[in-house]
């Protein structure tokens, strides 16, 4: 049974890679790393207090 589960795990991993490569080549998938950096920058900008102290 464990050998069969290992086979299914490897098959799922390989199939996921193939599907991921197909999607990345044929569809406009957003760059998640860039989106995450933009989100972090927005959060940091909102955390900072206003700089003009009058």
Automatic annotation (TrEMBL):
<dbReference type="GO" id="GO:0005758">
    <property type="term" value="C:mitochondrial intermembrane space"/>
</dbReference>
<dbReference type="Pfam" id="PF15054">
    <property type="entry name" value="DUF4535"/>
</dbReference>
<dbReference type="GO" id="GO:0032731">
    <property type="term" value="P:positive regulation of interleukin-1 beta production"/>
</dbReference>
<dbReference type="GO" id="GO:1900227">
    <property type="term" value="P:positive regulation of NLRP3 inflammasome complex assembly"/>
</dbReference>
<dbReference type="InterPro" id="IPR027854">
    <property type="entry name" value="STMP1"/>
</dbReference>
<dbReference type="GO" id="GO:0005741">
    <property type="term" value="C:mitochondrial outer membrane"/>
</dbReference>
<dbReference type="GO" id="GO:0033617">
    <property type="term" value="P:mitochondrial respiratory chain complex IV assembly"/>
</dbReference>
<protein>
    <submittedName>
        <fullName>Short transmembrane mitochondrial protein 1</fullName>
    </submittedName>
</protein>
<dbReference type="GO" id="GO:0034551">
    <property type="term" value="P:mitochondrial respiratory chain complex III assembly"/>
</dbReference>
<dbReference type="GO" id="GO:0097250">
    <property type="term" value="P:mitochondrial respirasome assembly"/>
</dbReference>
<dbReference type="GO" id="GO:0005743">
    <property type="term" value="C:mitochondrial inner membrane"/>
</dbReference>
